[in-house]
Structure formats: structure tokens, C-alpha cells
Task: structure prediction
Amino acid sequence: MSELFLHSFNTLSHGLIGYIIPFLFVLTIVVFFHELGHFLVARWAGVKVLTFSLGFGPELAGFNDRHGTRWKISAIPLGGYVKFFGDDTEASTPSSETLASMTAEERAGSFHHKKVGPRAAIVAAGPIANFILAVVIFTCLFTFFGKPSTTARVDKVEAGSAAAGAGFQVGDVVTAIDGKAIGSFSDMQRIVGAHAGDQLSFTIRRGDSTVQLRGTPELREVKDPFGNTHRLGVLGITRATSPGDTLTEPVDPATALWLGVKETWFVVDRTLAYIGGVFAGREAADQVGGPLRIAQISGQVATIGLAALIHLAAVLSISIGLLNLFPVPLLDGGHLLFYAIESVRGRPLSERAQEMGFRIGLGLVLMLMVFATYNDILHLAAS
Result:
């Protein structure tokens, strides 16, 4: 019995360290900077901030700063919020009775008594902070670790593949795709992986001559080193690596910043393309993941090293920034939609209309969470 207990304890400890801790580390960074964006712009706009919370539910620990803001860590670590003076809930919905009874001095510090411009800036600051965080992380990674580079050389062509049909040969070096210069094999993989079913034009260096080929990547299920399945475009060519074959190019801070911006835009572009593909029926929605999937990936990436985990935080930060910009009431994008309507109408929507909007938004968010969790369970069961 004692051995069984010890085994169970060790298994639980391994799961805690291997999955939960990396997950909380990544999520806390992303959520903190998102809410910090709201907080800083609110302070700049003269809005009184009542609460800055990492997590939801009962408070575990906290303190009050000199401005009267309660900074706290709450029991459910799946997000966070900033509550402004005049908010009735954590979702920044107002109470008409409370707003109407405010004095002139109180209205000066109330979020809901600010003009549309400052309110929109405060709401947009959260997602913007997520994108800035991603750029900063990518920039630091490129600055301190350099840019890995492996020549886009073809060492093997799979028989019957798209590459074979296009005329690729062993020894070819891809220098450009659709006129865009290719600096490494991973650059080529990214472009090919994102364009399954699309015909691409390849500029090839073959010996001393330049050749133009046209090929269409095939959509295939590919497993990563952790056994996770991804659907990507594949040509059917292989690059054999040997010691010293992969180079790391040092980059200066300005170049690192530019690469950080490009990397951030790449994640944004691919995320939007995937979402568009889901609605158009070109992509399967089973790749949508929730907290369980994020926890699993965090634990897997943590085994590679801290730099890889920080890189994951940047990608997650972009995803959360984009998600919050969707025009769904309850999310930041929903608030921005209401403010846009208010700007056009010259007055805000009625309290009833806003309440209905938030109820619809809550329903949509809950359905997305249930769907994502369902996908997570299926993914974990299959792995």
C-alpha cells in the first residue's frame, strides 16, 4: 500500500511540476501584461482603479497601493481583470443607479463618465499590450540567441510527392518562394506549411544555374517531436542535418526588433488565416484548444528549456490579444464595438441593449470554452 501511495504521489508531483507550473508561469505573464495595459492607460486617463486581479474568485493574497488600488492574486488562475470605479462587475458593466448617484468629483474618476475616446483607449490597451509583449519577447530572443539558419537544401525527394511532380532534385537550394527570399529551411517550411492546396512558385539554385519550379503543397497530418498532430502543407522534401550544418546568425538590436515584429505578424497572419479557413470549411476546428491543451504544450515545451517556454508565452500573448479583439460582447472587442456604435449614434446603446449583448457574449464565450475543452479531452485521450 505504501509503495502504491508513493508511486501515486510521485506521479502527481511530476504532473504538477511538468504541466501545471509551466502553464501558470506562461499564463500569468500573458494575463499580467494584458491587464497592465488596461491599468496604465486608465491611470493616464484619470480613471480610478479599484482592483487589479490575477485570477478570479476568492482572494488568496493582496495589498493596497497608495492610490487605493487593491492588487491581488485570486484562487482561479485562468485569467484576470481590472475593475474601475463605476464598474458593477469584473466585466466592466456599469450600474445605472450607482452612476446616477455619483458626485461631480466621483464622476471625474469614473470610467463610464469618460468620453468615448479615453474609454476605447483603455479597453484597446489590453490587447495592444499583448502584441507589444510578444514583440519584446521575440526581440530579446533574437538579440540574445541569434537567428538559427539552415540552408534550404533538398537532400531527399519523396517519390510520388508534390516536390517530385514539380521537378525538385536532390541538391537543389530554394532561394525564393513567390518572389520572397528564403533564408533557411525553416523559412521554407513555414511558407509551404501555411499554403496547402495553393500553387507556389519556387526559385531554385541548381548548380551554377537558376531554375523556376511550380508546385502545390499537399495537406498532411504531421506529428511534432512531442507526438502532437498538426495538419500542414507538405512538399515531400527532406533536409538532412549534420553537426555544424545549422548556423546561428548574431543580429544587432535593430534587426532583432524588426525580426520580432515580423515574427509577431506571422503568428497573427497564420491565426487569422486558420480562423478564416475554419469558417470557410477549409480547416478543421479540432485544432482549437483550451486550458488543458495549453497546459500540456507548456509542459512539453518546458522540457526544451526556458527560452522555448518564453517563446510559447509570446505566441500565447498574441493569441489572447487577437481573441480579445473579436467583436463579441464581454470581450474587449465587444466593448470597442459598443463604443463605435456610440460614436456614430452620439449616445450609448440603451442599458437593456447592452445587457442583452453581454448575455449573448457570455453564451458565445461559454460555448467556445466548452468546445475547446471537448477538443482538449479528445486530444489527450488520443495521445
Remarks:
- Confidence is low (pLDDT under 50) at residues 4-16.
- The first helix runs from residue 2 to 44.
- Residues 52 and 261 are 29 Å apart (CA to CA).
- The radius of gyration is 25 Å.
